[in-house]
Amino acid sequence: MDLRRGSEPLTHRWTARGREILDGSRSLPALMGIVNVTPDSFSDGGLAFDLPAAIARAEQLAAEGADLIDVGGESSRPGARSISETEELRRVVPVIEALVDRLSLPISVDTTKLTVAREAIRAGAAILNDIRALNHNVDLASLISDTGAGIVLMHMNGEPAAMQQSPRYGDVVAEVRQFLADRVDWAIAHGVARNAIAIDPGIGFGKTIEHNLSLLQNLPALADLDRPILIGVSRKRFLGELTGREVRDRLVPSVVAAVHAAARGAAVLRVHDVAATRDALTVWAALENDQHLSEPSERSASQP
What we know:
40% of the residues lie in helices and 14% in strands. The protein is α/β, with parallel strands linked by helices and 304 residues long.
């Protein structure tokens, strides 16, 4: 098995607007807490749809130990329809402005629209999380280069409205890896700094359950792209297909999948349930680290 020891450092650096998102010395993945300012996201649509609710959600995630916050105003669930640029701006910019004032964590904006990305960065966002990997608007690369923002390049087969209807690959791991390699090279050629880039194989974005499992089992195949890997598996449909659980009951499957991804080299985990994921990663790392096992603590030794 190709499992990464829990005590080994994640050596990739990821920088955004002068901040070290990953400094190359972490032994556990960073946790990106999700704030969906949407009425129709698959898992939490409507829960943070107004400004006070979104702020409260982000503050809760920060208190649970999130390392960064991802704010999105347009659902990308299977079957989702696009919203207008004006509506997306109305949803996300006030939230980002408020969070920058309240939290010290880096803020990411989940968008594909140039104007939304520009205004979000102007409001204080440090990272663009782009499900279309800068394919939708080439001027996004200039925005990233000019502002020094970080960028997540994600693979998606098709568009959200129809991406799950009949996704097909010859070799999903090889094809996703090649796509991400090409997009990293393209971004760098268009002025984006290598250390500003993270990559995401896009679990659930135009993939069957078999495609998703194959990608997660073979994450080390992406390691030679020399960029930190971001994984988002939280509450996703394939976990429901595996377990028969509805979205609200997918905490345990989500955490197990997150630890699996960490064991295979994920550097960032995008999650809804920060506290549970952090606890699971902490226990996993302790079990993988012989130093933790050789001398039980005084507290644990006194307990049955």
